[in-house]
Amino acid sequence: MAAPERFRIIGAMREELRDFVAGLGAPAYRADQILRWVYAAGAPSFEAMTNLPKALRETLAERATLYTTAVAETRRSSDGTAKLLVALADGAAVEAVIIPEDDRRTACISTQVGCAIGCVFCASGIGGLVRDLSAGEIVEEVLQARRSLGEGEALTHLVVMGIGEPLMNYEALVRALRILTAPWGLALGPRRITVSTVGLPATIRRLAGEGLGVNLAVSLHAADDFTRERLVPHARPLGEVVAAARDYLHRTGREVTFECVLVKGVNDSVEDARGLADLVGREAILVNLLPVNPVPGLGWQAPSAARVERFVRELRGRGVRVQVRRRRGADIAGACGQLRRHRCGH
């Protein structure tokens, strides 16, 4: 007869943990103590939860699980960026990145092992989608990232822009975000969290109705459907994606950005900039430009600095707010999916 499945602490909602603790014969307040140890104190084990009775700690060790992940490798860049290869219990792995910027410490996390979208310039989709992450695994990534910070450093921002399409793992994403923003959880401010998507219109609208209050980044990558489908196979029509993004902006009042990876000779012309400006229109939407981070074997190259600057001038001349994101971690396989590909052979 198989042993009963252990209760997973990380990824559980507060009421679920209270019910579990009550089933062990302990008072409900013990659940809140456990949550404080996990999210506020960063306890690595049940044994470290010293204000719990020893008998309860022993029972938790037998009946529950704390961490199911471990950091298998850490690479630190000369620019301060750190990339973590997070090993999962089944032998798969994902990536999390810590990006320092002045007083900010931003964690970039994954939501899937592999990716089904298949953006042609990205290492994440090589090999396709393996599986979704659970809500607990997503939350663990954030906790692992926080544990990797130096003394005196604190995690201030979170971007869900790592491996995978977050909105294709919707239920786990939303559950993880609720835990990460809950007062009893990590208590991150929703305005400091950004969810990135390649643009699934119906799911963007669904997210707008969740009341999460997080920011949204939509990866357009092109100003016309033909070019976009060249870069993002099976992409949804731009008109539908942009309309859903505007709906999110109006319904939530949260920041919406349009992301565009610039690829030499593909989407970096003045005409492309004009088309992107037309898509933005008069909305208060920021455009983030990122010259492509070349992946060995894929063949795509970044435009010259002069060509990027010309693109920026064209957008600004048409009243568009725009910034160029600085490439980070180039010396540590910093682009999304590269470390996993190198380590795991995907």
Structural overview:
The chain is α/β, with parallel strands linked by helices and 346 residues long. The chain has two domains: 7-65, DNA polymerase, domain 1 (Orthogonal Bundle), CATH 1.10.150.530; 70-344, Alpha-Beta Barrel (TIM Barrel), CATH 3.20.20.70. It is 34% helix and 20% strand. The strands form three sheets. It has a ten-stranded mixed sheet, with helices on both faces. The protein has a two-stranded parallel sheet with strand order 1-2. A two-stranded antiparallel ribbon has the order 7-8. The two termini are 36 Å apart.
Which features does this protein show?
346 residues; alpha/beta; DNA polymerase, domain 1; 2 domains; ten-stranded mixed β-sheet; 11 helices
Please identify, by name, the CATH architecture of the largest domain.
Alpha-Beta Barrel
Structural class: alpha/beta
Cα gyration radius (Å): 21 Å
End-to-end span in angstroms?
Answer: 36 Å
How many beta strands in the DSSP annotation? 14
Number of domains: 2
CATH superfamily (homologous) name of the largest domain = Aldolase class I
The SSE order reads EHHHEEEEEEEHEHEHEHHEHEHEH
Largest sheet: 10 strands, mixed
CATH topology grouping of the largest domain:
TIM Barrel
